[in-house]
Write a structure and sequence with these properties.
It is rod-shaped and about 150 Å long. The chain starts with a helix and ends in a 17-residue tail after the last strand. With about 425 residues, it is of the alpha+beta class. It is built from ten helices and eleven strands. It is a multi-pass membrane protein.
């Protein structure tokens, strides 16, 4: 069972408080009992001395003393026979102690006094035990309340830190854990927040440096690749020329894709919004690209979006389905949702778990000849549109996960509210 730090800390404080309270209660109880017994023995000793003087002077005995009492304890009798005055404490079966005092007489007889623990002392001990029990319970509950209070504050700060760290992990680079937990508090959570913020800053700087390097390299490659493509056009017709032109064109496409990924990573792209009928737009664009693809408009909807970026996302999904999947490829439009399905082996598990990754095309069943940039660009353009792009595999109902998929579906969810001119967009629930 998973429990929070608040309850663990509360339980720890309550347990320590209970142990301390029990230990102190036992010490106080024993100390009070010993003190009362000592007082009772002192009183019995004083009385037996008075009784001895009265007996030796021939006066009437008092205090209930007896001469040669047969009930006198053996240990006490042994001390008296040695010529010593002594007191003795004996425990009754009911737990109430008996107080004995004895003294040897000049005629060789033994004068003894037998008293019990007074009712007043018994009442005092009961009241003391009751007070100790109430105090122990109060300490336990007070410690629990203190643990809940302290643990609650610590737990809230840690939860805020975890939420902020998750936001950083999702790419929200402007989030800082130290601010999320409520500023500077000199404890371990502040040290954790500073460490996470420093790590996020270092990671952001590294990502930004890699993005700039990638963009610079791709930009510098555009000129020689364009020259190579132009020179290939001047070659005489033939099979070698076709191969050179094909590879030069592939290199040019790769350079343009890398540049586009770098721009999307820089979060500098802004959508140019227009009002369009989504079903009509998708049907027209898909028909122009491949008339053999079936498009179904289940429910028409007017949306405000960037047509150029939407077309880029749609064409990349279609190209991915054609390259890695199997026909027939189906496109459906239902309100603000566009679905692209193929009947191939399905998306690789890494893509379903982590999303598209550049220069990774997935498993060998779906690898093809791409560079893994198509879906990365589609996901980046979807973010600019404020949309959400999801991926899943099609399996029969109730089929196990290890069963081969019957196809893959990419779903583009356009937002109800278009992105603003600042590039921000409403967050959609996963």
């Amino acid at each position: 069972m998973r429990t929070g730090i608040r309850w663990k800390l509360s339980a720890a404080i309550a347990m320590v408080g209970a142990l301390v309270a029990v230990a102190l209660s036992l010490v106080v109880h024993n100390a009070a009992r010993v003190s009362m017994l000592d007082n009772s023995r002192d009183l019995a000793d004083e009385r037996i001395q008075v009784a001895q003087r009265m007996y030796e002077s021939g006066r009437t005995q008092s205090f209930g003393v007896k001469v040669d009492d047969p009930m006198i304890p053996g240990d006490l009798l042994a001390k008296v026979e040695q010529g010593r005055r002594a007191t003795y404490v004996a425990d009754r079966p009911n737990g109430v102690p008996d107080i004995w005092a004895a003294v040897p007489l000049k005629d060789g007889r033994v004068l003894s006094l037998h008293t019990g623990f007074t009712d007043r002392n018994t009442d005092v001990m009961k009241d003391l035990d009751q007070a100790l029990i109430i105090g122990s319970i109060a300490v336990v509950f007070g410690g629990s309340a203190l643990g809940v209070l302290i643990g609650g504050q610590l737990s809230r700060r840690l939860r805020k830190a975890a939420a902020a760290a998750n936001q950083v992990a999702k790419g929200e680079t402007d989030v800082r854990v130290r601010e999320a937990i409520g500023g500077v508090v000199r404890d371990e959570t502040d040290d954790l927040a500073r460490a996470v913020d420093a790590m996020a800053d270092a990671l952001q700087q590294r990502i930004e440096a890699e993005r700039r390097v990638t963009a610079d390299i791709a930009h510098e490659l555009r000129t020689p690749v364009t020259g190579l493509l132009t020179a290939a056009e001047l070659l005489p017709p033939g099979r070698p020329t076709e191969l050179v032109r094909d590879r030069a064109q592939a290199m040019r496409t790769l350079v343009e894709d890398v540049l586009e990924v770098a721009r999307l990573d820089g979060a500098s792209e802004r959508a140019e919004l227009q009002d369009i009928l989504l079903g009509e737009f998708v049907a027209r664009r898909v028909a122009a690209k491949d008339p053999d693809i079936d498009v179904r408009v289940i429910h028409e909807s007017e949306v405000t979006t960037d047509p150029r970026r939407l077309e880029r996302v749609l064409f990349n999904l279609l190209a991915n389905a054609a390259r890695h999947g199997k026909p027939p490829i189906e496109v459906s439009v239902e309100g603000r949702v566009i679905r692209v399905r193929d009947h191939g082996p399905g998306f690789p598990e890494e893509l379903l778990a982590d999303g598209p990754s550049r220069f990774r095309t997935g498993s060998t069943d779906r690898a093809g000849h791409g560079h893994g940039l198509g879906l990365t660009i589609a996901a980046g353009q979807a973010r600019v549109l404020g949309a959400r792009l999801t991926f899943r595999n099609i399996r029969p109902a109730g089929a196990p996960e290890n069963m081969p998929a019957e196809g893959a579906v990419a779903v583009l969810w356009l937002p109800e509210h278009a992105p603003t001119n600042t590039g921000s967009f409403p967050l959609l629930p996963a």
